TrEMBL record:
Gene Ontology molecular functions: N-acetylmuramoyl-L-alanine amidase activity
Taxonomic placement: Bacteria, Pseudomonadati, Bacteroidota, Bacteroidia, Bacteroidales
A Pfam family that the UniProt record links to this protein: Amidase_2
Transmembrane parts of this sequence: none
Name this protein carries in UniProt: N-acetylmuramoyl-L-alanine amidase
GO biological process terms on file: peptidoglycan catabolic process
Occurrences of domain N-acetylmuramoyl-L-alanine amidase (ranges): 5-117
InterPro entries the record matches: Amidase/PGRP_sf (IPR036505), Amidase_domain (IPR002502), EF_Hand_1_Ca_BS (IPR018247)
Length: 157
């Protein structure tokens, strides 16, 4: 088992009106010379969670942090016009929250962050500000995942 102290959330930069499967993701990552999917988990718009890489294997998506991180990607990130926006569905929000809570239980003390939060602090003020982001992924504060309310109970028939 490898040492893990970081859980990084990514988005696939997929238009909210389009579909992007784990097979598309794997194909794209292989075309970039990765050995396969660069994330441990992928969450579809319908909330389904796919395991793409064993947790024992480091991933390839957060340069400088790969050796000790677990990476989760959501099929989301772009609005109808291709602008970077938080487009996660309620199903994804719920699945992501549950997965993160389980991982934090299994890896206590781990830091939760978005990919953008791993950018260098160029002005050395101790805060990664938007003008310092190398990537804008995520379009929301990853810590807010734990504050999101659970979805309402389904109506019983």
């Amino acid at each position: 088992m490898r040492f893990t102290n970081l859980i990084v959330i990514h988005c696939s930069a997929t238009c909210c009106a389009c579909s992007y499967t784990e097979h598309d993701l794997i194909t794209d990552h292989r075309s970039q010379s990765f050995s396969g999917a660069g994330y441990h988990y992928y969450i579809y718009k319908n909330g389904d969670i796919k395991t793409l890489r064993p947790l024992e294997r480091s991933e390839e998506r957060a340069c400088g942090y790969n050796a000790h991180s677990i990476n989760i990607c959501c099929e989301s990130g772009l609005d109808e016009r291709g602008r970077l926006v938080a487009t996660r569905t309620d199903f994804q929000k719920h699945s992501l929250r549950m997965l993160v809570m389980l991982l934090l239980r299994g890896y206590p003390g781990s830091r939760l962050c978005g990919h953008r939060d791993l950018s260098p602090d160029f002005n050395r003020n101790g805060e990664i500000e938007p003008e310092e982001w190398i990537k804008a992924c995520l379009c929301f504060d990853a810590a807010s995942i734990l504050q999101e309310p659970p979805p309402p109970n389904p109506v019983s028939l």
